[in-house]
Amino acid sequence: MSLSPGDRRRLLARVGLALVSLWVALSIIFLLFIGAPGDILVSRLSNLENQGAGQRLVEVVGEIEVGATTKSYPAATTLPKIAEREGLSLTHVSSLNPHIDPRRPLSQSTVIVLLDGEWLRDLVVWNRLVLPEDAAEGVELLKLRNPEIVFPSFRGHEYAPAGATLTLHRGISVAEFARVRRITVGDILEVNPRGTAGNPDGRLHADSLLQHGDGIVLPLTRMTEAAIRHRLGLDRSVGRQYAAFLWGAVRFDFDTSFQSQESALGIVAGRIAGTVQLNLFALIVALAIGVPLGLLASGVRGFRAAQVGRLLSTLALVAPSFWLALLLIIVVTPEGLFEGGLWSIPLTDPDARNITDSPSQFFKLYSIPAVSGGLLLSGVIALAVRRQFEGGGGSRLLTIRALIDSLRQYLPAFVGMNLLLELLFNLEGLGLLLLQRIIQADQPVVIAIASVTALFLVWSFLMLDGARAMLARREQTT
Predict the structure, then answer these.
(1) Which residues have CB under 8 Å from 104's CB, separation 6+?
(2) Which domains are seen in the chain, by residue range?
(3) More confident residue, 383 or 7
C-alpha cells in the first residue's frame, strides 16, 4: 500500500519529532550528570577504587581441590523446607546431611550440604580461569585440561565431585593473568619492579609465564584523582563534554564500565532480556484483565456486571503495585497466608530467569511482578474499552485504537514500574542493574541504561503513532 503525500509528510513529521524527543532526553541525562557535584562523583569513585589501598602478594593458583556446595540456614528451618526452597528432593538433601534429622527443626544456624561437589561454571569464575561472560568456554577448557576426571550432571548442569583435584592451567602469562582480573599488564609491572618478590631478576614482561605457586604483587588501587577526572572528562569544557556525549550516543559508544572495564553497552545488552520478559508478561496480564473488565464495565453483560466491572477496574487503577506485590508474596509463599503456600518464589534459581530454561520456575518467579506491574495498565485499558462501548463505537478497530491510546499514555509509567519491581524480586534486568551501577558510581553504564531506555520509549511512541494513523486511514475507507 503506497503512502499518499499527506501520509509521507505526517510520517516525516513524526520521525522528526522522535529525533527531537530523543535529543531532549539525552540532553536531560547529560545535564543530570553535569549538574551533580563533580567532586562528589570523583570522591565516590576514588573510595571504590582505593578501598584497602595498597598492594598484595598473592600466589598463582594452578590447581584446586573441589569441596561441597553448602549454604547456611537459620534456626527453626527443617530439611523438607530447605529441599522445597532449593527445588531439590528431600531424599537428595537427607543423603548429603545424614547427621540431621529431617523431622526436627534446626537448633541453630546450620550449614547444609546441597551438592557433593561444585558447579563447573562457578569454579571457572571464582578461580578466575576466565571472565564471567566467558564461563561456558571456561567449562569446556576445564574439562579439556582434566580428561581423567568424570564430571557428573545434576539438574542439567555439570559439576566437579568433591575431593577431586582440578588443574586450572600449567602456566599463565602475565597478560592473561591481568586480563582475567580486569587490570592491565602495566598495572602489574608497575607494582612488581626489579628486586621484588614477583620480579626478582627484573625480567617480568607481558609474556612471562607464571607457574602454580609463584608469588606476584597485585595492585589494590591504580586510579589517582587526576586520572579519574580525566576518565570522567571533567577536565574538559562543558561544551566539549556535551559534544563528546552526543557523538558517543549517536554511535552507541558509551565507553567502558568503571568497575569491570567491559563495554557499557555490552553490559546493558546482557540484561535487556530480563526486562523484556517482564514487560511482555505484564502486558499480556494487562490485556487479559483489562479487556474483559472493560466489557463488563460497559454494561454489555447487564447492570450488575457493569457495577462489578467498574469497581474492579477502579481498584486496578488505584492499587499500589509495590504493596500488591508484597501482599501476593505473602499469599503464595509457604508460611504466608496459607501454611503450605501455593509455591515458593525461586529468587536464586538461575533456570527461572529464562522461560526457555524452566517454564514452571519462570512462572513462579515472574507471575507476581507481572501481575503487579500490569495491573495499572489493565485499569487504563478497561476504562478505554468501556468508553468505546458506552459511546456506541464498540467496533473492533475503535477498540484496538483505544488500546493503542492507553499504551501511548501510560507506557513510561508501565515500563518504569516494572523496572522498580525488578529490585523487589532480584530480577536480572535493567532496573536492578541501574541501582547497582548508581551505587557503584559507574557513570558509563548508567548513561547507557538511560539512553537505551529513552531510545526504546521514543521508538515505541513512533510505532504506536504509526499504528494509530493506519487504523485511522482504515476507518476512513470502511
Answers:
(1) 78
(2) 63-167 (3.10.350.10), 171-219 (no CATH), 264-477 (1.10.3720.10)
(3) 383
